[in-house]
Amino acid sequence: MVRFINKVGALNSCASRIRVYESFIKRLYSSEADSNTIDVAKIRNFSIVAHVDHGKSTLADRLLELTGVIKPGHENRQVLDQLQVERERGITVKAVTASLNYTFNNEQYLLNLIDTPGHVDFSNEVVRSVKACQGVILLVDANEGVQAQTVAVHSLAKRNNLIIIPTLNKVDLPRADPENVKAQLKSLFNINPDDVMSISAKKGWGVQELLQAVITKIPPPPADFKKHFKANIIDTWHDKYRGIMCLAYIESGTIQVGQTVKWRSDLKQHTLKYLALLRPGEEPIDKAVAGQVVMVGCGPKGGGCVGDQLLSLESAENIKVATAPTVKHMVYAGIYPADQSQHTQLSDAIKKLALNDSAVSVNIDSSPALGQGWRIGFLGLLHLDVFTQRLLQEHKAEAILTAPSVPYKIKVKGSKLIKQYKGDEVLITNPLQLPEASNILEYYEPLVIGTIITPVEYIGAVTTLCVDRRGTPLPSSAVDDKMTMMQFVLPLSEVVIDFHDTLKSLTSGFASFDYQDHGFHPSALVRMDIVLNGVLVDELCTIVHTSRLEYTAKKLTAKLKEMIPRQMVQIAIQAIVSGKVYSRETIKAYRKDVTAKLYGGDITRRKKLLKQQSEGKKKMRSVANIKIPRNTFIDVLKR
């Protein structure tokens, strides 16, 4: 008690004192605080994986009700979707853990549930989540059937050797066709129809049987108490008072509050100050054992990052820097403060949000028009939208977002002469990074393998769309007599902008789309420059495929003509590639009637004034710089 009082007295803020006091009371009176009673054979770690809108969050709500975490009622919806953006959009963005107690056959089980996102842009959350699981519930909509992301998450579970519990949801709806969907699962994944469970997450039908199947079919985690403590970090976030908090899967050994630990990335010693189960609210505990998924924290200076490992001091792990799993970013965009006076605030917001979203990459960038900013990599356009929305909602930081672009690679000749490039192949995330065309041997464009599941009557329309987007067809397969699965190799630049919306429009919303990285391949690419009255504007340069030159050039120059305000001199807007003009638009100069003050007299007076005006405009064109307001750059560059 004396140590506790001294700790409280040393704190600076009243809020921190209250938090520590509450933590102490919970530990003092909690009947479940002693983790020594946990039997690893009674632990089950599992995730819910599915396509978008197949009912993952609704099923998670029913599981929370069944285990007594929440009370049934309309007010308890999307309990694990804790972000404002998740509730507004009705989608899951972050994988969230909930540790549940459940009694089965008079034995107490600890079930660690991880609710994962379904959209392809947040697939990194699913990949990290399954690292802490031994099985998954593969949820499929009994109305929609197998979708593109269903194929992706099934493949992920197989690669990680996880037990799969196939489950049909929404079987209570009039359009449900469970037998047909079971046949699809048999055709695509060779799943026995007798092994497929049927539930209605909304009404709670079959959920208790599903929970019991989790206990009987999914094995307990492989745990070794005799080995030294080692935990893998699968998520991190920033707490205003406690610093960096981590979600950890304990692989071996035991851990308790007050124990000295080290990070594999820096090997500095830290004292474990916070240890809790997420139910989904924090429940402080004193000790945790191998096989559990727990929240850990080492104080404001404790550190931690996704992909790192927390080790005991006695651990004999090789000394090497731990890094997060490699993430291939599909889209890059520039983020700048609305005003440079807000640069510090936006910088802090991006750092804190990037800590919670390990899928983004952040690099400092600058623009003559927009000032200091950042070049940030995302997994897709929805990921980009959600990131900027969270900046505003969670950190009150307003930002200017430039048009998204995809990364390219180039092979540079004479790389020793170009100091900024250390190797022959260079990753280009911004067209401004491109060297002179004479120094480039070859361009490489990122390709993806797109998987489309569509009704058979739309096969022609889908094929036409993919071929128009420079796609190459791969062998297709029939899902059943009504649906087919098609695959195409597509350029990433043709996919990330509006491909999904166009596909949904062509197929009346019935088709689903998912893609996976296919690497960089040689392509006929060029850099398109925008020139205003002969002056190059670096911020408006783009990389385009040679087959899209005229279309892109006309579209960009027409947009610039609308956005750039008229000035006292004529402005010629040109889209140029290797010295050739592919499109030109002209903004006429303001006209001033210099003869308006004349009320009569000789014609020579009128000619003299017009001549002076002509000479003045000629001189102005020769010396004037085209000044584009900052707001115009924002309108042109933003999405």
TrEMBL record:
The entry's keywords: GTP-binding, Hydrolase, Membrane, Mitochondrion, Mitochondrion inner membrane, Nucleotide-binding, Protein biosynthesis
Classification lineage: Eukaryota, Metazoa, Ecdysozoa, Arthropoda, Hexapoda
Entries under Pfam families matching the protein: EFG_C, GTP_EFTU, LepA_C
UniProt keyword tRNA-binding present: no
Membrane protein topology class: Peripheral membrane protein
Predominant location: mitochondrion
Catalytic activity field: GTP + H2O = GDP + phosphate + H(+)
The protein's name: Translation factor GUF1 homolog, mitochondrial
